[in-house]
Write a structure and sequence with these properties.
9 helices; about 5% strand; two-stranded antiparallel sheet; mainly alpha; about 180 residues; globular
């Protein structure tokens, strides 16, 4: 498959758990899919200031900054999974405790502009990583946290995860963007 071709996603390529993310992303070529969250994430950053980004709708809920850093952490982890699967890793990859990662992230200490800049760099890195995979590599599968998933499915899961959290920010945090 050429990178300009539509990247099809089949439900058997990933665990049902990830459907919550993949349903947010329309089919397209690699760049279109991996940038499907770009305008919304940019709009969110434009709608936030330091004070708003620290908002929690309840004491036990993440701040908006923590959500953003969680999305960055998750993209890095999913990129690592994609690379491992593309290279033929046969060993199961352990999951991660996203709650513990958020607690250790010090997200609220970071400047919003630093988070935004890292977001831009990371997504360029993600696109570069996936653009370098051959068709064979994109179709390889691996086991992460007891779930089978293809490299191809991560093309959809990565932006879908972000779009899921942007929906939460709109709905639960009341931020319009």
């Amino acid at each position: 498959m050429a990178k300009s071709e539509i990247i099809k996603l089949r439900s058997e390529e990933y665990a049902p758990y990830y459907r919550e993310y993949t349903e947010h992303v329309s089919e397209g070529n690699l760049g279109e899919v991996l940038n499907s969250d770009r305008s919304e994430i940019s709009a969110l950053f434009n709608a936030l200031d330091e004070e708003k980004s620290l908002y929690r709708y309840a004491d036990d809920k993440w701040s908006i900054k923590e959500i953003l850093v969680h999305c960055l952490d998750t993209e890095i982890i999913f990129n690592a999974r994609a690379l491992m699967f593309a290279r033929g890793e046969q060993n199961p990859i352990l999951g991660y405790d996203h709650e513990a990662y958020v607690r250790q992230s010090r997200a609220d200490e970071k400047k919003l502009e630093e988070i935004r800049a890292f977001w831009e760099v990371l997504r360029k890195t993600t696109i570069g990583l996936f653009s370098g995979f051959s068709d064979i590599e994109l179709n390889r599968v691996g086991n992460a946290n007891g779930n089978i998933m293809s490299v191809n499915s991560l093309v959809y899961i990565i932006p879908g995860h972000v779009l899921h959290h942007l929906g939460v920010i709109r709905e639960k945090y009341g931020v319009e963007f």
